[in-house]
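In keeping with the milestone schedule agreed at the kick-off meeting, the structural modelling team has produced records for the first pair of proteins. Each record is given below as a sequence line and a structure-token line. The laboratory manager (R.T.) confirmed that both were archived under the project's standard naming scheme.
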Amino acid sequence: MMNRRRVLSWAIALCCSGAAVAQTQGAYPNKPVKFVVAFAPGGPADIIARLLGQRLSDSLSQPVVVENRAGAGGNVASGLVAKAPADGYTLMLNTSSFAVNASLSKNPGFDAEKDFVLASVVASSPNLLVAFPGLKAKTLQEIMSEAKSGKLNYGTAGAGTTPHLTAEYLFKVLGKVDVTHIPFQGAGPALAATMGGQVELASVALPAAVEMVKGGKVRGLAVTSAKRVAAMPEVPTVAESGFPGFEDYTWVGVFAPSKTPPEIVNFLNAEIGKILRTPDFQSKLAGVGFEPVGGTPKEAGDYLKSEITKWSKIIKETGTKVE
């Protein structure tokens, strides 16, 4: 994952972006900006959209409207925003599932590398495996044992999300067990189904589940970070649970149609960077299990390409297909 120290590294390079926008694009923005969120309310993209949208609205002096357009593992929103006017007024909040779907989806309706520019990688978080509180198995190793002798299901925010691929790799490749995947249209619905016992397990980005784990509505089994997270110190890592070296994350980024003027992309990147550098915003991110990332548009673009390559290899290794 791009180091969060980059939150500080590009400020000087983009300090004049606001002036460039004013000179070449007129008074941008002069009307509300729309955040199209690729998943249902309650998931990581939605959490970031609402936290960032509020702050960006203040800095831009224009409303930032959040619109959830869930479906097809984020592809519904991607298809809509790819065809939107490239004027900086329609942006997409999507997760690392965008990089996964570049290989997983045969005909997503857009080209991940040609139709979009990643203006900023805002934040990242580990993924989390949780269980229905009434499930007999209490640990990840006990889950693996039960999966060998019985049939278990797990929910995710949708096919092609990184928590989906994380779980597939953990169960199929490392654990050598078969656990059936049940895709939902967001982490919120997946967690609700786990809380109610409709599915035994869920694999989601950590921020969506923090409060539910703390409240005892679902049981935290294992987190995919290298170390335990401060928000839930009682939940062990996957590495501690018998799979040394295992580490994985979900990131959330702000995307724009590819033909958006570079001046606007740089301006948005700089404004987001200012927000990410504020201690109050960093504290809010930490409270829900996120870490700020940031970086220049070029760094974000290079990172996206590396993620597409990485997840393409994992898809082939796990044999994952869109259901």
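The second protein of the pair:
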Amino acid sequence: MSDTDSPLIHKKLLTRIEEKMGRLNSLRPLPADSVIRLHDEMRLLHTYHSNAIEGNTLTLSETRLVLEEGTTIGGKSLREHLEATNNAKAFDLIEDIANKKKPIDHITIQQIHELVTAGILEEAGKYRRINVRITGAVKTPPDWSKIVKLMDELVKKISESKTHPVETAAYLQHRFVKIHPFIDGNGRVARLLTNLYLFSRGYPVIVLKSEERGKYYKFLRAADAGNLGTFANFIAKAVDESLTMYLSIYGGIDELLPLKELAKGTPYSQEYLSLRARQGILDAVKTGKSWYSSKRAVEEYLSEHGMK
């Protein structure tokens, strides 16, 4: 979503997303048991990574214990535990909002924030009524007296958007963070709103990984300076990766396999395929420290880039 209305997302990436969406839609309804397992995993991953981006020190395994077992982790603060449980509850809320086809408006935004910051902020669910500064930020958020008007404009623009849903989702996240309507919790709410917008339009939820925190803030700063393109492509890559995860449910040529195994059927080494994955040329996803791809993706790579 730009002033020129020209596409911000790279054509090849957008084409790949649309092709995967077409395949995913043709396969619906998805296997119920597999969808539930993947849903629970995405809920956990979103909660962990979204909190870690903001400095929460719970590990992924600790976050799983807090959410699934109600475990209290020694040496971790009450706030960090609340951030985990609150974010997971808010994740459930956005799915309920999307399923009930409720719009993104002041009410839903404040409901999400109230859950995210429950027991943490006295002002949970309320737009800020003071001015704030963000450490390390070049620009100061708008004066508090302009918040309602700016949020009115954002809600209207999103509801009337005619641009690609992924591009609109990126615009929503950046613009929300820039307005900074709450005293705290804006980043977490922004990422939840992005998923609400995508999910309500048939896309799977996405996870923005804490390992890419540096890129995330760098691209947000670029968007502040007027270049939304890098951030839009960052969000698009997360959508592409999420679609790959959902398509892998069906196994076969879409099953995700370690590059070490896939390399055996190619003239390339695992290291080379990992390089192409890091470059975004080979369609692959990184889980932990390992890269995974599918036979379909490798075949497409060989067809387009393979040795002649």
